[in-house]
Amino acid sequence: MPKVALVQVVYNSMRFIPTVLPAALNQTERDTEFYAVISANDDGSKEYIEQHFPSVKVVDPGYNIGFARGHNEIFASVDAEFFQLVNPDLVMSPDYVEQLLKAFGDHPNFGACTGKLLNYDFDKMVPKTTIDSTGVVIHRSGRAYDRGQHEKDTGQYSTPSSLIAISAAAAMYRRRALEEVAQERENGKREYFDEDFHSYWEDVDLSWRLVNAGWENRYCPSAVAHHGRSVPSSPGGYRKIVSFIRHRRSIDPKIRRLNYRNHVFLFVKNSPKWYGQFFVREFCYNIYLLIMETTTLAELPKLLKMLPSMLKKRAVIKASRTVPIEKLESLIER
Length: 334
Hints:
By secondary structure, the protein is of the alpha/beta class.
């Protein structure tokens, strides 16, 4: 079995495959295997992969399996020491995997690592020098965002660091860490990404659970990749209300609903305390939705229905937490 299993959930990804897969398959680290999980194939992605990249192991469940379950199937069935996630629009530098493995080798307490992610313009087919992510920042208000996103890369994030969370777009996970934080479902199935999230925020949830269990999430700037990212954050954030509203309206309604539901679940499951900032922000956010996005607010009944399950998961995480709350709070922005 490979030392590193590279995993991609393919969702009508034909636009990206001719650029993304050669970069992933030609890494300087050779002890790897690539697994493509087909979640949607309306554009012939599966057939193209099978024809042009015969070394890729194609897994086709026959339905939209989603980001979380799609990766979980590989985590559970492939006997690899590390799992390198390859987002459908991620172009890795040739030594990306090698650089992350070096970081893991020096630090047995690292549960997950990511490199420096810059933007990629798939319309012009050129890499850019603006930052996509150097890890994820979480505030006590529940707000989470990719560190450095939209900034021009001038070396300001050139120092390795430990963070509360990292983006799964290009994350590498240690199997032992995944097994330690896996969640047990009533049917006995083990989950790594929380499948109740389906898509969006499941990567930050997994990162936070790793930290709760005593593992570190590490940012390694020597590993560089370029990410297309279909749904970035609003450049001005919520402080620039006009651009924020315009940005929100450009997002697919289904994605807005998943974001709304899952950002609450993320905080409920993992936060060491019930911070007042969270409830203030949620009150303001829901007022905004009531006025501007009633379609998103329609997700509220489902959120409330699933909330008891999330509170049970919170109790499990709290009972198994191995680090002092003070250390956790040092990783959360005020």
